[in-house]
Specification:
The chain is an alpha/beta fold. 37% of the residues lie in helices and 24% in strands. Strands 6-7-8-3-9-10 form a six-stranded mixed sheet, with helices on both faces. Strands 2-1-4-5 form a four-stranded antiparallel sheet, with helices on one face. It is globular, with a radius of gyration of 18 Å. Bound molecules: adenosine-5'-triphosphate and magnesium ion.
Length: 257
């Protein structure tokens, strides 16, 4: 039986600069309950904008976006977002940044303390709880953003290149950690990345977008069984085939290639 659709992007149009820039027009996309949908697309095609619209942080100029039957107009508590540029509050320490969403949700002090400890540990930032963002590397700041989103245990997770600024080793460790968390507790997720390998490793489906105005070029089903690790995905014979298909699609969209 197929899971019900939780996020529905219906014929959505988004423009900037008083209509001069069309980011996408008539875009349709559906994300099912518990599905990890990864999005690939050339730089500047509108991926971040799409995620911001899904979260209700940016308005749209046509169509509608519906989450759990309710049209998105403003950010909702059941949705958490990890931003491409971290989105941390510079005046708050690591533990306060991680606690932020939980405080907004009205969690008890004991719950906040327990969750903050757990997720700080998970992203490898023990010892930095009292540091301010300026004293962290880019990769560390990104991990704080990830911990903050995971700590609220959101029903829907929107992630904008969450591992983009990490070094290769940390990135693979976190991908594996993320696969493990997802296995234990699947949640509806939209995950933007520039890495074809990452999209295939983490996604149930991979959407390839065209250059701006973004259109859905293709949707690939990642029929690689879970539980997965990055290593098990790469070793799967389907991986090479899927990577090749994504690569061909993206190459066509890179106008300079
Ligand atoms: N606030 C804004 N005002 C005007 N134009 C904007 C704004 N935000 C984004 N744009 C434009 O919208 C287009 C899509 O930008 P967006 O950040 O969504 O791309 P992206 O696919 O996330 O790119 P990248 O892969 O580089 O992160 C770009 O042409 C960008 O210049
Ligand atoms: Mg972006």
């Amino acid at each position: 039986m197929t899971a019900p659709v939780r996020i529905s992007v219906e014929h959505v149009t988004k423009r900037f600069v008083s209509g001069a820039v069309t980011v996408f027009e008539g875009l349709d996309l559906a994300v099912r309950d518990g599905e990890a949908l990864c999005i690939l697309g050339p730089s500047g095609c509108g991926k971040t904008t799409l995620l911001r619209c899904m979260h209700g942080l940016a308005g749209i100029d046509g169509g509608r976006i519906v989450i759990d039957g309710v049209e998105v107009r403003a950010p909702s508590r059941k949705v958490a977002m990890v931003f491409q540029h971290f989105g941390l509050m510079p005046w708050k320490r690591v533990r306060e940044n991680v606690a932020y969403g939980l405080e907004l949700a009205g969690a008890s002090k004991a719950t906040i303390a327990e969750r903050v400890d757990r997720y700080v540990r998970l992203v490898g930032l023990v010892g930095f709880e009292d540091a301010y963002p300026y004293a962290l590397s880019g990769g560390m700041q990104q991990r704080v953003g990830l911990a903050r989103a995971l700590a609220v245990d959101p029903q829907v997770l929107l992630m904008d290149e969450p591992f983009g600024s990490l070094d290769a080793l940390t990135r693979e460790l976190l991908q594996d950690e993320f696969l493990r968390i997802y296995q234990e507790h699947p949640r509806t997720m939209v995950f933007i990345t520039h890495s074809i390998d990452e999209a295939i490793a983490l996604g149930d489906r991979v959407v390839v977008l065209s250059a701006r105005p973004a259109r859905v070029r293709d949707i690939l089903v990642v029929d690689i069984p879970r539980p997965r690790t990055v290593a098990s995905v790469i070793a799967d014979p389907r991986f090479v085939e899927l990577r090749d298909r994504c690569w061909r699609l993206l190459r066509k969209e890179a106008s300079w290639a």
